[in-house]
Amino acid sequence: MAELLDDDEVENRLPAGWTRDESEIVRVFEFDDYLAGVAFASEVGELAEEEFHHPELVIRYKEVEVRFTSHEEGGITGKDIELAEAVNALR
């Protein structure tokens, strides 16, 4: 099991573009059209499956919201930060 990060650790390690929403980290990615967002969400899904750490994905018209948390631990862990960085690398 991964250890929960304390508030300072989350703040210091939060990747570019991500914010904290209580026990989750979140980022909204913008796209030129709907299908570009769907393709991105698919890439995120493949990455998540490889790492067996699955975010909540919300696909909207020209944006995709990605949320990470570690449910088993009850908050944000280093795994969430690592996956957020990997998602950033997709863009």
TrEMBL record:
In terms of superkingdom, the source organism counts as: Archaea
Gene Ontology BP term (one): tetrahydrobiopterin biosynthetic process
User: Key word Transport present in the record?
Assistant: no
Q: Which reaction does it catalyse?
A: (4aS,6R)-4a-hydroxy-L-erythro-5,6,7,8-tetrahydrobiopterin = (6R)-L-erythro-6,7-dihydrobiopterin + H2O
Q: What class of enzyme is it?
A: lyase
Q: Name one Pfam family in it.
A: Pterin_4a
Q: Which family does it belong to?
A: Belongs to the pterin-4-alpha-carbinolamine dehydratase family.
Q: Which NCBIfam families match?
A: PRK00823.1-2
This one is known as: Putative pterin-4-alpha-carbinolamine dehydratase
Q: Which organism is it from?
A: Salarchaeum japonicum
